[in-house]
Amino acid sequence: MYGQVDIEVMDNDIKRNEVKVFLARFDLTFEDDLEYTIALRLDGKLVGTGSFKDEVLRNIAIDEKYQGLGLNAIVVSELIKEQTKRGRLHYFVFTKPGKAHLFTGLGFKEIARVEPYVALLETGLGSIDTFCDTINDEAAHLKPDRAALVVNCNPFTKGHRALIQRAAGENEAVLVFVVNEDRSLFPFADRFKLVKEGVADLPNVVVVPSGKYIISNATFPSYFIRDEDKVIAQTRLDITVFAQQIAPRLGIKRRYVGEEPYCPVTSAYNTAMFDILPKHGIEINIMKRIEVQGEIVSASKVRDFIRNGDWEGIQRLVPEVTYRYLKLPSTQPIINKIKLSDTRH
Length: 345
Hints:
By secondary structure, the protein is an alpha/beta fold. The protein has 2 domains: 5-126, Gcn5-related N-acetyltransferase (GNAT) (Aminopeptidase); 129-289, 3-Layer(aba) Sandwich (Rossmann fold), CATH 3.40.50. It has 13 helices and 14 strands.
């Protein structure tokens, strides 16, 4: 190491633009929703940078001329120090597969990679092992040969209920993962409660949060931001994490999905499943969307009905538990939000 090393917080547009230009050399893009960005300067020259959003460390890059001097460790250490100040004790990192070894050398453990796009690693308190152990504890009463579904349920519809019921009828045990990320119009706590109550009569079904490892900010941010340039990499990353890490630990042999003729991102996700899961011995079962009175049931259609105030239409497409919830006075702020929003999510 030589020269004066300084860390600068890049907290305005001018400074961040300097980082954008620097990252372009590494084929990395700077996203405006990042929480925190630093620059590492050597004798005043920008030679490294790193950012984070939530628990995910991103855009870590060191000038080629200065690699091998331990600067990568300095950037990571500074980011983790700031994360700790914010009360976060677990961290992910996105990096190119060829750079993963730089982070395993700093104590990170690789979870999965998708060549040539991305590798995902983690460190800190909690891990994918802990996540799977928690799910196994909750599902301890279920038989070990299991099927799984991943649902967002924004909100819970008769279509979701039909898919889960079919899985329950065809398998000894079913795990239903409700997407944990709170970026949908209906909050996670409400979505989770509706699914749990809506399938409470199915004794071989356990409803669990998807956590940080299934369609989350760590594995699949494009699910929410609709950045088509990243869909291929991140759909495959999410499915690879499921196939290599989650399914074997939880005894999942089959995965059920609903047909998706409308959303291109979800369609790409299903395509990734058909390409990856069978290679890991996981069967895929796809169910055609159900119809009620000739109308295809979908959560987006329910949100359209909410926006238009069509309560008869809503009642046709949702279970009673969802309808009661939508009529609660406490749900009115969400109803109002839907009426003012783009209902894709």
